[in-house]
């Protein structure tokens, strides 16, 4: 029996974290390993571009004579479009086919990357970055849906671990690769290779996708829920835009107005979805998904872990560059241990004794909160990043991965294959929003606690303040993780009683 399903029917091998329905009637794939490499390659490029541009900002400013606000939109435009359109991308995949939307999103992302690399002026670059984010939003939700539909049992758990490793590695790799490309100044091209590097990779993936992607047709009869999409898109936009731009613009009044309006739009979204469900329609996120045991608290914990992870990576890089005077490349390399630890734990956590799997998320997040506080104390005097802090960041990465990866698997374990697109859109949006909010919120905490240009001691103090905030966020994540475990155990007990009653 292969790891992939065949046309003969679903393979019902449940993952160790809970009962998961198998996929439905997916086309066979001759090389599942290559298929996984293909879709995770697309995911990696999308994550990479959330970080790789940061180190190119000074050269973009010089080359294009860009203003500070324009540069902020160059960096943030991609993230804004990406975060706002993820749910839309998931629903389009469910309607028109996951493989087709993956290829379409990959083609749009690759073309937009080429356009960014050739942009003649700042305005063009901002517009192309928005298109690049839209392409990523079409592509990324299909990755999780393809994994859910084609892998089962332990193969699915391993695929989800690799997915988590790509999320962590992409953030660190963006800083390192961006520093390398800008420092190399290939043929005098300055900042442009940070976008053009996507072109050869994208073309290879597109060619491979034509051969490897399975036939996963969508359901054209499924409702599109345009009102829900519009309201949710507006709510996410109203939330993300002020968070991303607020600190740079001095937190203007309009930013607070937009944040308040986003809360109202989220409430309106809930009302719209309930009305659609009562009328027998198909809401944007199926009620079966939201009702899956442990899913919502698991998603909440995943959101907070990624918020803390992305916020720390951003603040740690700022501390090294602004406070310690390190180059972008060296700062990126110093971030590698936490990313490697995160990725290794995401891949291998299931090899730990089964009795530990249930307690990994709350235990890991609890220890992670303490670890961030200890690291803040070590770096708070601005003395530098030595061997002990780097070793501790690797431990933090391991703890974060041991908490995040089981939660990620748990969030999807009890979702039916027919709801894979809804679930993947929800989880991936939580991950992406966690990164956006973490960088915006915790970055603001760091920048608010330091005066630029910063001294090493002042920057260290700001990092200490930021790690205290991070510790509080992760402690809250521990509570959500514990609740997810309790809900799952109660669901398992109810299922056991039902089975016992049926046998009786």
TrEMBL record:
Residues in Major facilitator superfamily (MFS) profile domain copies: 35-489
Compositional bias per record (Low complexity), positions renumbered to this chain: 11-25
Keywords: Antibiotic resistance, Membrane, Transmembrane, Transmembrane helix
Compartments reported by the entry: Cell membrane
Main location: membrane
UniProt keyword Transmembrane helix present: yes
tRNA processing is among the record's keywords: no
Tree of life domain: Bacteria
Membrane protein topology class: Multi-pass membrane protein
Classification via InterPro entries: MFS, MFS_dom, MFS_trans_sf
Segments traversing the membrane: 34-57, 69-89, 101-120, 126-147, 159-182, 194-214, 226-245, 251-272, 293-316, 328-349, 356-375, 387-413, 425-450, 462-484
Ranges where the record places region Disordered: 1-25
PANTHER family named in the record: ACTINORHODIN TRANSPORTER-RELATED, MAJOR FACILITATOR SUPERFAMILY MULTIDRUG TRANSPORTER MFSC
Name used for this protein in its record: MFS transporter
Organism: Kitasatospora purpeofusca
